[in-house]
Amino acid sequence: MTPTLIVLALVALGVAIVVWATRRKPDSPRVGPQEGDTAWNDPVTPGEPARPIPRADAFADAPPVRDLPRDPQP
Q1: Which of 50, 53, 69, 73 has its CA 20 to 30 A from that of 38?
Q2: Nearest by Cα to 41 from 50, 53, 32
Q3: How far lies 29's CA from each of 16, 25, 26, 32, 34, in Å?
Q4: CB of 23 within 8 A of CB of 17?
Q5: Rounded Cα–Cα distance for residues 13 and 5 (Å)
Q6: For residues 12 and 1, what is the distance between their CA atoms, to the nearest angstrom?
Q7: Helix or strand or coil: residue 5?
Q8: Cβ neighbours of residue 49 closer than 8 Å, sequence gap 6 or more
């Protein structure tokens, strides 16, 4: 009889742990902005483009790079 009570107590403890771990907590009031869209990529001002305008290549007029000597390979 004692082993049966021990097993039942362990099963009850296991069920209690599972119920405690998976219980739903009541929703707490939201703190901060209620809006979900943070608009991280929107323009700052209406006249500003959303994406930067591509600029001319700064190195387009630079002379070509000469091949540098390579390290000897084993």
Answers
A1: 53
A2: 50
A3: 28, 12, 10, 10, 10
A4: no
A5: 12
A6: 17
A7: helix
A8: 43
For tokens 């290549």, name the residue: 57
Nearest to 43 by CA among 33, 35, 53, 34: 53
Q: Rounded distance, CA 64 to CA 45, Å?
A: 40
Q: Is there a contact between 33 and 39 (Cβ–Cβ < 8 Å)?
A: no
Contacts of 50 (CB under 8 A, 6+ apart): 41, 42, 43
Indicate the residue type of 69.
P
Question: Contact, 50 vs 43, CB < 8 A?
Answer: yes
